[in-house]
């Protein structure tokens, strides 16, 4: 097969999924994985079959793809503006799946109010079930019975990433405003994106996440709104997740990547996704590969030591990246011209969104090709 192409080791993939699910189960947390990492129906099914309570998506397009494939519990974890087109598309998804959206403004709440089917008044249901324990309530709404209801919301709070979200202490105020205009609120969420930092950054971000979510949940309770869902999670901060959460939404853990490897979130034995590339030159005493930014992506955070790594040469780094080629430096003999090497992309999510399919291997043999079904569904 002509290089470059992305390969997933199914055994490592399954082990990563099972390990994260077991970690969540042991702590009494629901796991709602972020499928923007893989955009692949087959992998999503592996996650739900392992015990995931639902899935997280980044866009309406991703929600449509996974709802079409039978996934019936979806959370769109980014602020969406309620244009007429967006409302119509989300309403169509809500006819066949339970849909939660994230909001961080009263204006967005007003726009989303009433979106979807009116077959069940969720707010009345919640008010009539005050005696139900918080950790039991989501099960009464998830699964097939959740489809055909109005779209509902989680309040996004800023826990230190400073991308979107309200201050934790204002979450209750926004929840009251949302419910006043008819948008039911089920809880709060955050994304501790500042966990992508070396040293103590992962643990600090997890602490910030727990503190913000606990404060936001208290703010909802003080405003008379029960936070049934208290949702956080990122792959780097997962192991350090603090108390107070009911749900975690990691994404990259299914594959892992060069960023996670460098941060210490995984070891090379946990990396399921690689790009197979051919050595096309030894110019300058370095390794030149036929895999550039158009298959690896171009992400390189300031702390990263390169544009990617080589799985079988842990000390090697990709030091130059152009559209169609990568230049790697490594000590010792260079792999021969014409040979294939396994490149670990810096950011798995970006690399996957650049290809139409993933080649699946088991015990070194290619056994299947899985479509990246939600590739390019960026809106």
Overall description:
By secondary structure, the chain is α/β, with parallel strands linked by helices. The protein has two domains: 11-252, Alpha-Beta Barrel (TIM Barrel), CATH 3.20.20.10; 258-346, D-serine dehydratase-like domain (Lyase, Ornithine Decarboxylase, Chain A, domain 1, Beta Barrel). Helix content is 30%, strand content 22%. It is built from twelve helices and 17 strands. The chain has helices spanning 10-26, 41-50, 60-68, 84-94, 106-112, 122-128, 137-141, 171-180, 201-222, 258-263, 293-296, 348-352, and strands at residues 5-9, 30-31, 55-57, 73-79, 98-103, 152-156, 185-189, 229-232, 247-248, 273-281, 287-289, 308-310, 317-321, 326-329, 340-345, 357-362, 365-371. The strands form two sheets. Strands 1, 10, 11, 12, 13, 14, 15, 16 and 17 form a nine-stranded mixed beta sheet that branches. An eight-stranded parallel beta sheet has the order 2-9-8-7-6-5-4-3. The longest helix has 22 residues, at 201-222. The two termini are 32 Å apart. The relative contact order is 0.15.
